[in-house]
Batch of 4 targets.
Target 1
Amino acid sequence: MTKDKGIILRNFVFLVAFTSEVITLSSDKNEFAIDMSKVGLTHVPKDLPLKTEVLDISQNYIAELSLSEFRYLPRLKILRLSHNRLRYLDFSIFNLNRNLEYLDLSNNQLKRITCHSITSLKYLDLSFNDFDVSPICKEFGNLTQLIFLGLSVAKLQLDLLPIAHLHLECILLELEHYYVKEDARESFQVLNTKALHLVFHPNSLFSVKANLSVNALECLQLTNIKLNDVNCQVFMEFLSEFTRGPSLLNLTFNQIETTWKCLVQVFQFLWSKPIEYLNIYNLTIVESIGEERFIYPRTTLKALNIEHITNRVFIFSQKALYTVFSEMNIKMLTISDTPFIHMLCPQTLSTFMFLNFTRNVFTDSVFQNCSTLVKLETLILQKNGLKGLLKVGLMTKDMSSLKILDVSGNSLEYERREGNCTWAWSIVVLNLSSNLLTDSVFRCLPLRVKVLDLHNNRIRSIPKAVNSLEVLEELNVAFNSLTNLPGCGAFSGLSVLTIDYNAISNPSADFFQNCPMIRSLKAGNNPFQCTCELREFIHSVGQASRAVVEDWPASYKCDYPESSKGTPLQDFRVSQLSCNPSLLMATVVGTVLVWAIATAILCVYFDVPWYLRMVCQWTQTRRRARNLHVQELRRALQFHAFISYSGHDSAWVKTELLPNLEKEDIRVCLHERNFVPGKSIMGNIINFIEKSYKSIFVLSPHFVQSEWCHYELYFAHHNLFHEGSDNLILILLEPIPQHSIPGNYYKLRTLMAQRTYLEWPKEKAKQGLFWANIKAAFNVQLMLMTENNAEASF
Ligand SMILES: *[C@@H]1O[C@H](CO)[C@@H](O)[C@H](O)[C@H]1NC(C)=O
């Protein structure tokens, strides 16, 4: 029952589409809709929102409706109540629902209704119920907006008078409980409707006999027709009642079960009637298929459309079958969803312009060497068993009018070594999608093709050297394995390229220059690598007018590197610097240079190394002073410092060194002041060096020349008491060239080489640090003996 209903609804949609006026009953997106179908309801829910406009409570267990339930839904527009258990309905419960347009009460158990006119109703379905008497009451006459009425009736003889003045689009009469006495003829008047749909009992042989009077019926649909060789005549008589006038143009059979013989008779019968479109959905052929005598007369029929044939035949004449279809003198034939071959090349010149054999079992030998399909413009062989592209090309060779060829969804392959392909010169649209084609397909294409669909194949790249398809306008290569955008060299007129869902990571940026005619590029959902190279592409997208790039920016996202995965390309940023190696190099080199120059300037102008050395020495000295052994300090010391210098430098010693030392209370020993007369010079030197905590040497070129000074240095360094300890302070008053130091003064050379001296800075500003360094060396509280004590200790 549900299945039937589905078909009926589908066909209703078809009928409505057929009639010129479009009925807008389906709920649009902005309406407030509640779907409570299939939830086991036994009553209409109480707490529905006031604003409900669409309410679906179909397929539940609701047996009763009460007055209060819909009262509070003033905006209710669409109410679906089908497949429930309603037995009785009082239409006055809807009298406050002034917007109610669509009311589906089909597939209930309604026996009785109490009428009340709901003038807003456009769609009322009362079919598949249990009415004993016709449910048409006089109030229906007020439903002036009504366009669809579905009824469940037990006989055709209806009192349609109350609704005779309405202008309906479609009436559905469900006749499952139809009964008439044997051979009784009913009369039935179809009033003012464009479409009529009759549903018979699914399992009874067709037996309706009626005198019909139809008025301007355009569209007839019959569901559940069971025919054999005996009642075939009854059925044709029934049909002839409808086809007496010229108005019926569209005839549809759903669920028809028939013998082959009867089917051919029905075709023969209908061929001479003024019908233009014949549709058959779910055709079952029973008993046998044998040869039938038939000739197709001249016909107004334009299109025969058969979807889904089931063959329950055991004796089968293939030739009989093929001829019935191939010799039809109509323009359009569709036979889809049929698991056997039903047609071959017509014997004589054929009238077919359109053939659609979707989802059949054709192989590529069909229509080979067929020279009778010269009017054929469209051939659809979608989802069949075609394998060789070369043979498909060959098949079209003599179809000199063929414009559109759809062989999508097969298993087509082409290898180059198979040879060159031949195609009908006239082909402009070629659909090769969902096959097994590889790169080589580009060597086997009709040269005048304008629209080429190759999506969902196995193409990895588009070869550079292909036959040029100069008039190609649209190319679809989505869902392949392409790694780059193609150049348009071979497709100079390409204006629409669809290349999404491939393996493109770095699309070339010159695409837009390369393909000047491009109007639309769809390249989203590729695994873009968001690195420097991609910037140029993003830039070129930015420059191309946005309308050209389809789905931008939503479908264009980074796939790599991991850190930017999912980032829209539009938002991908990488600095100018990191993408330009020469710029990066220049920047690094530049920075280094600036640093070097700055450092050099600092060194030259501010003598930074000198300061560093001084600070370093100062810290070392302080540390050493702190670590001095107490024992050492107990030594009998008389002076803080013994100063050794050349006579030439005495002026500096007297004016600079001495005042600065003595200012800090440093007791200084000078040879001309403190040497004991009469004692040997050597003795004096040794004596005073020993009695001094440190020895200061003022180094200069003069110092080097002085032999005495050298002795002093020697003794100071080998001081018996504090050998190894750091008792020397070297002051470099003036630079001493290495070569001017005599060869045997190796001690001085070593000391100079170790650079453990303090340089005397000529600049006043630096002298503070110099003195601080000297002072640090004496930063020790020393107990010095008085001269007398010293004397005593001697
Ligand atoms: C090709 O056929 C497929 C279905 O197999 C369809 O989706 C597609 O739109 C067709 N392409 C063209 C260009 O008609």
Note: Residues 382, 406, 408-409, 431, 433-434, 451, 453 surround 2-acetamido-2-deoxy-beta-D-glucopyranose (CB under 6 Å).
Target 2
Amino acid sequence: MLISFIAGINITLQEGCTEQTTLECLQNLFEQIENITVQELPVNTVMDILNMVFNTSEKILESLSSASPAELASYGNRVLQTSEKLISTLVKPTDTNDSVSFTLAALEVEVFMVGPHVTLKKIPRLETTNSSVDIDLIGIAKNNNLTRSAAVGFMSYVTMENLLKPDFFNTSNDTVKTMMSTVISVTLPKTTNTKLTKPVNFTFRHIREFDPNGSLSCVYWNISEWIVDGCSVLETNSSHTVCSCVHLSTFALIMQTSRAPESDSQLDLFNLVCVIVGLVFFSLALLTFALCQWSPGVNNVARINICISLLLAHLLFLLTQQFLNLIRPQQVLCAVISGLLHFLFLSGFVWMFIEAVLLFICVKNLSKISSKKREVLSSGFLCVIGYVVALVVVCVSVGLVPEGYGSEHCWIKTDKGFIWSFLGPVCIILALNVILFICIIICLNLSLTKLNADVSQLKTMACKTLGQFVVLGCPWILGVFTNNSKVLEVIFVILNSQQGTFIFLIYCVLNNEVRQQYRKLFRRLFCGHKKH
Ligand SMILES: *[C@@H]1O[C@H](CO)[C@@H](O)[C@H](O)[C@H]1NC(C)=O
Ligand SMILES: *[C@@H]1O[C@H](CO)[C@@H](O)[C@H](O)[C@H]1NC(C)=O
Ligand SMILES: *[C@@H]1O[C@H](CO)[C@@H](O)[C@H](O)[C@H]1NC(C)=O
Ligand SMILES: *[C@@H]1O[C@H](CO)[C@@H](O)[C@H](O)[C@H]1NC(C)=O
Ligand SMILES: *[C@@H]1O[C@H](CO)[C@@H](O)[C@H](O)[C@H]1NC(C)=O
Ligand SMILES: *[C@@H]1O[C@H](CO)[C@@H](O)[C@H](O)[C@H]1NC(C)=O
Ligand SMILES: *[C@@H]1O[C@H](CO)[C@@H](O)[C@H](O)[C@H]1NC(C)=O
Ligand SMILES: *[C@@H]1O[C@H](CO)[C@@H](O)[C@H](O)[C@H]1NC(C)=O
């Protein structure tokens, strides 16, 4: 591809480089540009050559991804040198003042020249989309005794951070570095005395969200690294930062944020053991409920389903956390898992509510428990309610804020309040349960006069359901407040993982009939042979 014959230069892409772009194509392009000896070029020619350089370097960026830092820096330097050389050909002698500016896909350029008879007191601020520069060009021109002229070239590179990575900023603190501005270059082309009369000031618009906990550094590029020497942050707010530097070169704004704290391996192991213990007891409780139909008057459906929902939820959560590194790259899978967790935990709560409602109905209709209940609240009907409510909440959440699923831990994202799609329904259910329990207690006290076996049995039942409610509901309330408190975190881990254990304790170990069933079972298992 031929660019231009004007002024006797022709920059061409090497043979075959349009089909397959290699590093050599770019090398060759650099060389051709370095070989240009003409002092002035038309703007259009410069734009075409720059486009060619940036298009070519963009194409080989992928093959550069495996390059060593030194190689990257070296390519970055050549892109900078090439651009600066081309920009200097735009400077033409002027008597008063003149300017040139253009915008390419990868680069924005402003050139301002002043001559011996400039009438301006101060040159206007040089602006590009995301950054601007204040420089005392008039003062610099006055310092050039011979020509009494000067020129400034201002370049803002849109994609340069791919080569001059923020990681090239080496600090004693091991922090995460983020490029907060476009990379800019300020040069004084064709100016003999480049000594600055005043510090040069840059205003950077943040191209990424500013983390209030981060620390900002104005840096300049010195051959192979970003360094701060001579640059400082003048002022900053959430969207802009003003930097001041006492020399010219290539600049950027880098934000340092502390690394995510190393996951606490002790706590992780403790959590793993706790969750596994909890899962074992969940399974035991589930088995017991399924095998022992001990109280015909009491419906087991709700309790079995609480166990199923929470067992699956805890199991899925455990597996997800163990294989997080494999799952996280698969955005969709991660989001689906967090949706499923949302559904399972929520249905656990809905079933808890159903259990309280069933108990309430029992207490209300003390006289006609067994006969009526079965028909009104058949298991099938309960299952529909127990799972459909949670499903509806998840579907609505997916419909409204689909991007709310799939956080770092494949759970619901906690920012922007999306977590309330879980906490909201949970709080409502907990509140309703509290109301129900108050009603149940009042009802039981009123019917105290009857003092029959039913009442005392219901009382124990109410106590147990209340205990279960506290055990299942508390961890989540606590979980919201664990912000970095070690003690609270440990309590949360214990309470949350031992839900299965508590349920097993309350309904199986502390239940006479179940204990008898167990005894029978053990006898059959271990002593059965002796009888024969
Ligand atoms: C640049 O110039 C040198 C000698 O001045 C020459 O050897 C080299 O081939 C030139 N490079 C290109 C790409 O034209
Ligand atoms: C470079 O790419 C842009 C679009 O990405 C295109 O408009 C332009 O023509 C290309 N320039 C050259 C010299 O290939
Ligand atoms: C840059 O800011 C400093 C401090 O506010 C000021 O002294 C200096 O004159 C400014 N430079 C320019 C070129 O405006
Ligand atoms: C970064 O600085 C540390 C000392 O502060 C030094 O040991 C290390 O070699 C430096 N790394 C690079 C890539 O310059
Ligand atoms: C590095 O860490 C020390 C203390 O750990 C802190 O005082 C200093 O400001 C940090 N430096 C940067 C550049 O963040
Ligand atoms: C300016 O910054 C915005 C982000 O704030 C970015 O999307 C845009 O591409 C940048 N434009 C240039 C020309 O650097
Ligand atoms: C780059 O840094 C070295 C020391 O760190 C210094 O001697 C040199 O002058 C710097 N170069 C430029 C262009 O600032
Ligand atoms: C932040 O600072 C910039 C430059 O100093 C200013 O233009 C902008 O209005 C400020 N923004 C806010 C939100 O204060």
Note: The longest strand covers residues 250-258.
Target 3
Amino acid sequence: MRAYSKTLVLSTFFFILLLLYFFARRDALLKAEQNGGSLRDVRSAVTFHPPLLRDTQQETRRRQKLTKILSGSKKITRKHPKQFSMSISHKGPMHLALVACRNHLEEALTMMKSALLFSNRKIMFHIFTEESIKLMFETRLKQWLDPLSSKFQYIIREITFSIKDAEEWKKIFQPCAAQHLFLPVVLKDVDSLLYVDTDVLFLRPVEDIWSFLNMFNDTQLAGMTLEHEIPNRIFDHHSIKGIAGINSGVMLMNLTRIRSAVFKNSLIPNGVEWKDLLNHFYEKYKNYITWKDQDMLNIIFHDNPEYLYKLPCQWNYRPQHCMYGSNCKGAEEEGVSILHGNNGVYYDDKQPAFKAVYEAIHGYTIEENMFQSLLYPLQTKFLDTVNTLCGRIPQIFLKQIEKTLKKVYEQRVVIHLGHLQY
Ligand SMILES: *[C@@H]1O[C@H](CO)[C@@H](O)[C@H](O)[C@H]1NC(C)=O
Ligand SMILES: *[C@@H]1O[C@H](CO)[C@@H](O)[C@H](O)[C@H]1NC(C)=O
């Protein structure tokens, strides 16, 4: 009898606890909805139906699935909360360098916005630019600092070639294009750096490409993608000595290693350090005025292949990966991670799929609802591109954004619940 009443008391106790928990959670959800509004925002965003893509049934199913995931708090709370900690990572900042000249201010800011949209780790931007647009940069970035001060810092610098014939260099190479060759020398105190062209857009967190630094073996010091997935196929003016070559629009660099490495080359048998290498190159190639910075990198890594980490093509996805048919398997499988709209495709009508992504991110204002003001307009824009070779499979472009937004949403819910005391 005593054992029986003990059990009764215990189970009543647990029942009451369960009830309390249930009500507390319901309250919490309601409160979260009223408080920050983000939960409500996203819910109303989910019930907003833009014109459907592709097959209606399939799209409806997809949307139902998304709605289920977004409203199914059960699923979210079952997961380990740590996994979704929305707070900015306490690890040191990731360093991102860009070189923006003349009319590339707007494009550069759009690239930076894309980097900030999806990342959870602080970013330090090193902006190299001309005196004439410095002030405009400053004004625009200050507007972002208010909502995003925990997410980024920036330094604006002038174009700097730390080399003895700096003025000569500037005459021969386009100063803006050649700047990134000097980054290991100019940014003396930075250990690792991601350099990107301004016509690049991040479709997933910057920390994802940053983590490739840990995958470098003992000799690798820079990560880049190949210029062509299928060597020597269509345009080969970039390749040198018959190598397919690398594209320098996205360069992940361990600067510490670049500064201390010795580079073999045909000019000096024993090899030289990076900073001297640039001088030698200048002496040897100053008459080949059509050469570009990318050609120089191609020569360097052709002579020192063990220094190069080959990034998969979805980390520097360009029109040539789809305009003659798809030739980037990685993008088909997991979607584009970094989009690179080179040759001006964001501004003409040659590649509407690239333009659609640029315009969606460009038109998004920080702090707006990301589903309503970014994802859905983007999905709608893709309707106009399905007849082009690049827009044929919208998922190649949309997969990573959808994945990231889903994660951001889940993090918000957990944070809201986490703030409430039961
Ligand atoms: C870069 O390389 C140096 C020297 O090998 C190493 O100490 C450092 O941790 C590396 N940085 C990153 C981010 O991996
Ligand atoms: C690192 O990888 C590159 C490319 O695969 C290779 O050439 C090099 O020998 C590797 N280095 C080490 C130390 O294993």
Note: The CA atoms of residues 356 and 381 lie 6 Å apart.
Target 4
Amino acid sequence: MRIYLSRPDITEKEIQAVTDVLRSPNLSLGPKLPEFENAFAKYSGVKRAVAVNSGTSGLYLCLLALGIGKGDEVITTPFTFIATSNVIMMAGAEPVFVDIDPVSMNIDVGAIERKITRKTKAIIPVEVFGNPADFDKICQIAEKHKLIVLEDCCEALGSALNGKKAGTFGKMSVFAFYPNKQITTGEGGMILTDDDDLADMCVSLRNQGRAKAGGWLSHERLGYNYRLSDINCALGMVQLSRVDEMKTKRQQVARWYQENLAGDDRFVVPTEPAGCDINWFVFVIRLADRFTRQNREEILQKMREAGVQVSNYFTPVHLQPFMVEQFGFKPGDFSVTESIADRTIALPYYNNLTKDEVKIVCDELRRAVDSL
Ligand SMILES: *Cc1c(COP(=O)(O)O)cnc(C)c1O
């Protein structure tokens, strides 16, 4: 590959911080865990932060802490990473999909209320690719119908809507730190909430159901090992301290793409909607409606052959084989999602991508489309 889809941004500072932990006696449940949690809570302006070993385990613990399970329905979007709906099924509840808005690519606010039943307990909206555009309206609907909002902001660290940060819209919210996210801990996640009881429950659940007081071999409830080690937390501390610097770089790369692709009606290029300040997770353009899925596949293939790593974020969740098998979903069930998913191209996007590399990517993209 000449140009990768994603690259972590690790400096000597991160390496030093990780090394310091390795030289200490506390590799897990040491001082770096509360340090990272407190710094994250402070950055987000939320009362409590609970670190866990992945975004997926964070979302799952939130559902458990909220008491959502068998017999409950949870509304979410089929245009997301698979974890969003997997956690609903892991908790024993049923995912109820609502199609997406074609502009924001987030859950279609106008279609949510039709899917609310007596069984509906929560909505899990996702800030897809980092875009928080529809969150105010989602929260209004949830309030009206007394539903809990669990915010899957795993793709939106550093984004904001009208000055309000991602991670502050839900009753609980979850970030993720896999290496392709805005900041990384290798693997990891963070639960945020203003509710002490929910936070305490997550602290217990991530650590084998241990009680606050009671000791290492006292287990108050069924729990898990979803702890985040001090090695990961030390890495996260440094990454979090650089989040604004990294956001500036990411926004610059986005602008280079926007400038380079401007005025070409073959592409729909992401822009910031009014009121949004977006720290993009990935930079996903779309082919115009006249192109087919087959066209997109050929373009991906040609770009890869040219050494440019690209991807097709996302394939619709409801059409994943195990979802079809369990729920009987079929093509056409969520037509906006499917139509958009057929035409997306995630372009290489990371902090240190250069202007010259952006030009290479755009040239290869045009060359691939020209040759269809
Ligand atoms: C990354 C991501 C997650 C969680 O991912 P992990 O790999 O478990 O950390 C959840 N939801 C969305 C939308 C994501 O992009």
Note: The first strand starts at residue 48 and ends at 52.
